[in-house]
Each structure stands twice: as structure tokens, then as C-alpha cells.
Write a structure and sequence with these properties.
Strand order of the largest sheet of chain A: 1-4-5-8
Order of helices and strands of chain A: HHHHHEEEEEEEEHHEEHHHH
Distance between the termini of chain A: 40 Å
Oligomer: heterodimer
Strand content of chain A: 5-15%
Helix content of chain B: 40-55%
Shape of chain A: globular
Strand order of the largest sheet of chain B: 1-3-4-7
Strand content of chain B: 5-15%
Chain lengths: 396, 327
């Protein structure tokens, strides 16, 4: 039971920290939230810098140009990028964390050659076409149809919650290729170029006022059969293969960011007057901050434990759902606490005086998505109770 | 970094678990209760298992292990609600003759917290020595000389308590720094016990929910109950990480802030034990409210352990102070 990073981990940290100290300030300010062209330039530009410095694809195999860092090096990586306030994956999210790894695991040699190096260099942006209006938590109920016509699929349907659709070059698309098979057995996984005729993108406005998600309407879109990854009707398995890459580190840098968020909150509380005292003199507030910080530290220890387990066994730990469930609810509590500290200043979403009101409110609004996206908290509880505790399964 | 249990630690944990399962199975708690919870034979066996001398060097008759190992051992003791002044006798080993061997049963009283209410001493009747933690140091008192009365109805049926009218000064056996250190280590080991309780209550709840049928199916199949148990699992896993991290940080203080890590462990494991013990009763429904189902022993022991080496509130305040120092 050893929490000490190895000498080689610390060497990796020192080099990365030195590089980040120059690279982050040089990359400039993050663009405005809905300036999509600028966001693409900013995020892919950062990805290119990571690539040139040898830090791209932290968990990707070396054979595909990745860094293939050890799991403890990955923890160091997330600690350092959070510490340096470096940009995170941004619009490269789907390509780096899901689409790319799926192509690596299941793609043909041609598909790998066409996409993998470009994703890694920040030259190709992907989006995800999984969810549909009728297929949310019940993803396998998706209805988008793909009918074979020669060497093309003709695709018709309606996707939703597609992140970064407006700047994406490709979409990892789940379609129904056999409507008569049981729902998990008739799905295929396609790489859809986003410039094909018949694709219409309608951005959704989130409660944070952002347009990160879009609806994507597909009308007679002709996608080459050669763009299918894996066998026809085997798309459900192909989708789940990438879970192998997920070892509870998906939110790692957010967790560390949250620790600094809590420190900022305390700093603001100390200089916020309440009558003849400060907000920090409120015992209830301090108690809640103590709880929250304790839970955050414990969560990070839990990630370390889960990472070390999968490192030894080669199989992801069972803790992924527990980490996600716990983290997302903590994030909401942290931002709610921040709002309590700023009080009426929080009626503004723009900074007021020297209070970081904008950041607090942004966090608070965005945190509402965390218990919904990537498997709702209710779905996570189902997963834990069924797969870990062995309780009876829900109807599928 | 390998934060997992080593093979030796796994063996240690399995050994103590097998011992506790055989010697203090849940069905025997009622027997122990009728014996006023203290069984010198059991105490001797715990000593032979190395529970008290675990961290003493081998040439001093101990096992020569570390804090993380001790947390694991206490986790197993908590899992079977093993009664007695376990943490105190462990802390006293090497300081009080016979504590490690189990010949001297050492209990204790922690006066370093803000609670200056009535003085209640656990297991007083069974003690050969009582240690008191004060700001000025660690003191040894003769338990038999204390003026006081046994409480007729203790909260935890396995933890008898005496109401002591007055506490003599006693003989100082260690300085103020040692007192703080005992309290710190004690908090980490009790966090281990609380983690064990958080696990044991989930282990009780799951099979019961699968066996108990209502509306023609096991109640454990209803989402309302599945989600309670999923939350119990999360609490247990977070508590495990926190308690192990405290042990590992005590063993290697360069990896973190020892005081912060221990406060976090006591707080998180304390909350987990409390929530899970309550949830365990809830999952058992009406049966959970009976004395017959052992869930209540876990909840009552949690309340006892919450009130030693710092409460959840006290540790939350300490963590908040640490965060404020860094803000």
C-alpha cells in the first residue's frame, strides 16, 4: 500500500511541468464559448503542440504514435495539466477518447492509416452520433436506419446530444442495419464524413447558454460500406470495446481542478463580509468545505487505488461507475456552495468587482450535465447494483 | 506507486478475517452480549494474532508491521464488531507492560477533543490500566480506584460504560507530542474499524434483499432498494481509499499531509459507517428494527467510535483549516 510515485514518474513530471510552464502561457487565452471556429483552432492547435512535444495520445499504444504512458504516469499527467491550467482535450474529446481508440481496436488497416495519425496531430475532429430522441439511457433502442445500396449505406435518422458537431470532420455513427434482429444485434458502427450531402446540424442551447451539443438530421446520406468499423450488425460490441480504455481516469483532471476551485471558494469566503464577520467565520460553511475537500481527496485516492488495480490485473476495476457517480454529485455540491458564498453577487454571470462570479456560475450551470451525460447517475446505480452487487437486472 | 494491498497484506487481512469469522461470528454477538461483552480468552487470542503488538519491533515481542497493516487489521475487527478497547491496547503496546501480550487490558479516554461533558469510560470493569490523553501528555490511571458507577443500559450492548465522577491526575507516561500522536494514530485505526462496518453492513443488506420477497419478487430487485445499496457501495469504496491513504501516509509522511489524511479518513469512514448502518436497517425493513437482526450492533458501535479521536465535525473543521491555509 504505497502512495509514492516512482523516480521515473517524478522524472516524467519534472519534464512535463517544465514544458507546460512555457507552452501554456504561449498558447494564449481560451476563446469565447460559442466562437466555434476559434475554439477549433485553439484546441487543435494545442493538440498539435502536445504532439510535437511527444505528449499526444497519453493512453494510446506506441504502435499508433501514442505515448502509451503507464497508468501512474497518466495520473501525473492529469495532475500536471490541471496544475498548469493547461487546455484539456476540448473539441478533440471524441477523437482522442472514443472514436480513435475504437478505430485502433477494431478498424481496418486503411481506416487506421486514414484517421489515427490525423486525430493525434489535431488535424481531424470527431463528433459522436450515438444518442437519439428515443434512445438515451436505452441507447440500443436507436432507430437511425442504414440500408445497403451497392457499396454504400443510405442513412436516414435523427441524432441528438452530438458534441462539437459544428466543427467536426467525422462522426462515429451508430445505425440500425438489421431492424428485425433483437435491438443489440442489429447495430453497426460507421465513420461518417461530416461534409456529405444530407446532413443538417441544428445546435441546441444548453442551460449554460452554450451550443456544445447539436441535433443532427440525416436524410439519404450515402456512406461507403468501407467506412464501417467491425462487422455488420456487430456495432454494439464495437462500441463497448473502447470501455477497455476507460479506467476511471476520464474525469481525472476535472477532479484536480475542483480542488483548486474549492481553494478559490475559500479565498472568496475569507474576503466576503457578512455583518461584522466574514463568510469564512460561518461554522456551517467551514464544515461543508471540510466535508467536500475530504471527499475530493478521498476520491483522488480512490482513482489511484482503481488505477493500481487495473495496472496489476490488466482489466479495468469495477470502480469506474462509482467514481463517476461520486464525482458528479460532488461537483454539483461544490458549485452550490460557491453560490452560497457569493450570495447576491451571483445574480450576475459576469464577474462583479474582484469576485470570480462568472467562473462560479459557469461551473454551477455546467455541473448540472454531469449527473446526466455519459450514463445518468440512475444508470450508474443500476450498473453498480447489478454488475458489482449482483442484484436482479432491470428489463432491457 | 502501488496503492493496492501487497501479497503480505492480503495474507494478513485474510488471516485476521478468518479468525474473526470463526471466533466472533455475527450469530455469537448475542452470547458475547450476555457475557457483558468482555471475554479475556478472546483478548488473549487477539494478542496471539498480533493485534496489539502489530507495530512493535520483532525483538520487542511484536510483529514489526506498519500503520497501513494496522488499518487493515482494524478493518477486519470492525467488520465483525469485535468488542473491547482494541485501539487503546494497541496504542499502549510498548508503553505499558503486558499490553501487547494481552495480559494487561488497556482502555483509554481521549480528552483532547472539545467535548467536556460527563466522563464515560468504556469497559472500565475489565480494564487493568486506563490511559488518558490530555493536552499535557499521556497519563496512566488505575481503573479500579476510580469513583464511579456502571451505566445500567449502555448504548452499545457490547460496550459497557461507567460514569466516572472524578478523574485523578494519574501518572504521566508520555509527553504532549506523544498524546497528539496517539490520537492521530488512533483516529486512523478507528477509521479502519469504521470502514469494516461500512463493508459489513452492505454484506448483510445484499443477501437479505435477495432472500426477502414482496409483490412476488426479491425486494433487492426494486430500483428503490438497488440504488440505496449502490450508494452504500460508493460510500464503502470512498472510505476504503481514505482509510488506506491515511495508513500509507502515516507510513511514508513524504507522500502527503499526515494530519489531513487521517482527519479525512476518520471523517469519511465515520460518515460511511453511519450511512451504511442506517441503510442496512432500512433495507431489512421491519426486521431491521428488531434486536434479533444484527444491523443495530453496527449502528451502535459506529456511534461509539464516532465519539473517540475526533468526531466528524471536528475533523471537518480541521480539514477546512488546512484548505484555508493553502487558499
Amino acid at each position: 500500500m504505497d502512495l509514492r510515485y516512482s523516480d521515473s514518474d517524478e522524472k516524467f513530471r519534472a519534464e512535463l511541468r517544465a514544458w507546460l510552464a512555457e507552452a501554456v502561457p504561449a498558447h494564449g487565452e481560451q476563446p469565447a464559448m460559442n466562437d466555434w471556429d476559434a475554439r477549433r483552432v485553439y484546441d487543435t492547435g494545442w493538440q498539435r503542440k502536445l504532439f510535437d512535444a511527444g505528449y499526444a495520445g497519453i493512453n494510446w499504444p506506441r504502435a499508433y504514435g501514442g505515448l502509451e504512458a503507464s497508468l501512474t504516469e497518466q495520473l501525473v499527467y492529469y495532475e500536471e495539466i490541471a496544475r498548469a491550467n493547461a487546455p484539456y482535450v476540448g473539441v478533440n474529446f471524441v477523437g482522442l477518447l472514443h472514436g480513435g481508440p475504437t478505430v485502433i481496436a477494431e478498424g481496418s488497416p486503411e481506416q487506421k492509416e486514414a484517421h489515427i495519425p490525423r486525430i493525434l496531430r489535431g488535424e481531424e475532429v470527431w463528433c459522436q452520433g450515438f444518442s437519439e430522441p428515443v434512445a438515451g439511457s436505452d441507447l440500443a433502442n436507436l432507430q437511425t436506419r442504414a440500408e445497403l445500396d451497392g457499396d454504400h449505406y443510405v442513412v436516414n435518422g435523427h441524432k441528438i446530444w452530438t458534441s462539437f458537431a459544428q466543427v467536426a470532420d467525422y462522426c462515429e455513427l451508430l445505425v440500425r442495419t438489421d431492424p428485425d434482429a433483437p435491438k443489440h444485434k442489429g447495430i453497426s458502427w460507421l465513420i461518417m464524413p461530416m461534409d456529405l450531402p444530407g446532413i443538417e446540424i441544428r445546435p441546441l442551447k444548453t442551460i449554460a447558454g452554450e451550443s456544445d451539443f447539436s441535433e443532427v438530421f440525416l436524410e439519404d446520406v450515402r456512406i461507403p460500406v468501407a467506412s464501417r468499423v467491425g462487422a455488420e450488425n456487430d456495432g454494439w460490441r464495437v462500441t463497448n470495446v473502447t470501455l477497455r480504455f476507460e479506467r476511471g481516469t476520464a474525469f481525472a483532471s476535472d477532479m484536480i481542478h475542483m480542488q483548486s476551485f474549492v481553494r478559490t471558494l475559500v479565498d472568496v469566503a475569507k474576503r466576503t463580509t457578512r455583518g461584522d464577520a466574514t463568510a469564512w467565520d460561518d461554522r456551517l460553511l467551514r464544515n461543508e468545505v471540510g466535508h467536500l475537500s475530504a471527499e475530493l481527496d478521498a476520491l483522488w485516492a480512490m482513482v489511484k487505488l482503481s488505477v493500481c488495480q487495473s495496472s496489476r490485473t490488466g482489466v479495468p476495476g469495477l470502480g469506474g461507475s462509482a467514481v463517476k457517480l461520486f464525482y458528479s454529485e460532488l461537483a454539483q455540491r461544490a458549485s452550490e456552495l460557491a453560490q452560497r458564498v457569493i450570495g447576491r453577487a451571483g445574480l450576475s454571470r459576469d464577474d462583479v468587482g474582484d469576485l470570480p462570479v462568472g467562473r462560479f456560475l459557469q461551473k454551477s450551470l455546467q455541473s448540472l450535465s454531469l449527473t446526466i451525460a455519459a450514463g445518468t447517475s440512475q444508470i450508474q446505480r443500476n450498473i453498480i447494483s447489478e454488475r458489482v452487487l449482483g442484484l436482479p437486472k432491470e428489463r432491457r | 506507486m502501488d496503492f493496492q494491498l501487497t501479497e503480505d497484506q492480503e495474507a494478513l487481512q485474510q488471516g485476521i478475517r478468518a479468525f474473526c469469522d470463526g471466533r466472533v461470528p455475527v450469530e455469537k454477538l448475542v452470547d458475547l452480549e450476555s457475557k457483558q461483552a468482555f471475554d479475556r480468552g478472546l483478548w488473549q487470542e487477539l494478542a496471539e494474532m498480533g493485534v496489539f503488538g502489530l507495530r512493535l519491533p520483532e525483538d520487542a515481542g511484536g510483529v514489526g508491521l506498519g500503520h497501513a497493516d494496522t488499518v487493515l487489521v482494524f478493518q477486519e475487527l470492525g467488520r465483525r464488531v469485535v468488542p473491547g478497547p482494541l485501539a487503546w491496547s494497541h496504542l499502549a503496546a510498548g508503553h505499558i507492560e503486558g499490553a501487547a501480550s494481552g495480559d494487561t487490558v488497556v482502555g483509554g479516554l481521549d480528552l483532547l477533543g472539545p467535548d467536556d461533558g460527563p466522563i464515560l469510560v468504556e469497559h472500565l470493569e475489565s480494564l487493568d490500566a486506563l490511559v488518558v490523553l490530555r493536552e499535557s501528555g499521556v497519563f496512566r490511571l488505575d481503573p479500579r480506584s476510580l469513583p464511579g458507577e456502571p451505566v445500567a443500559t449502555p448504548l452499545d450492548p457490547l460496550t459497557p460504560v461507567h460514569l466516572v465522577a472524578e478523574l485523578p491526575e494519574g501518572e504521566q507516561i508520555a509527553d504532549a507530542r506523544a498524546a497528539a500522536r496517539w490520537r492521530l494514530e488512533g483516529a486512523a485505526f478507528v477509521a479502519g474499524q469504521l470502514l469494516g462496518i461500512a463493508e459489513a453492513t452492505l454484506e448483510l443488506a445484499v443477501p437479505y434483499s435477495l432472500e426477502r420477497e414482496q409483490f412476488g419478487r426479491p425486494v433487492g430487485g426494486f430500483q428503490a432498494l438497488k440504488h440505496i445499496m449502490a450508494d452504500m457501495f460508493v460510500k464503502q469504496e470512498v472510505a476504503r481509499a481514505a482509510a488506506y491513504a491515511a495508513g500509507a501516509t502515516l507510513d511514508d509522511p513524504e507522500v502527503g499531509d499526515v494530519v489531513r489524511a487521517v482527519s479525512i479518513a476518520k471523517l469519511i469512514a465515520g460518515e460511511a459507517a453511519l450511512r451504511n448502518a442506517r441503510a442496512c436497517i432500512q433495507v431489512h425493513g421491519g426486521m431491521g428494527y428488531t434486536w434479533e437482526v444484527p444491523a443495530h450492533y453496527y449502528l451502535k458501535r459506529t456511534w461509539v467510535l464516532e465519539n473517540v479521536f475526533g468526531t466528524v465535525e471536528e475533523h471537518a473543521e480541521r480539514v477546512a483549516e488546512r484548505v484555508a491555509e493553502g487558499a
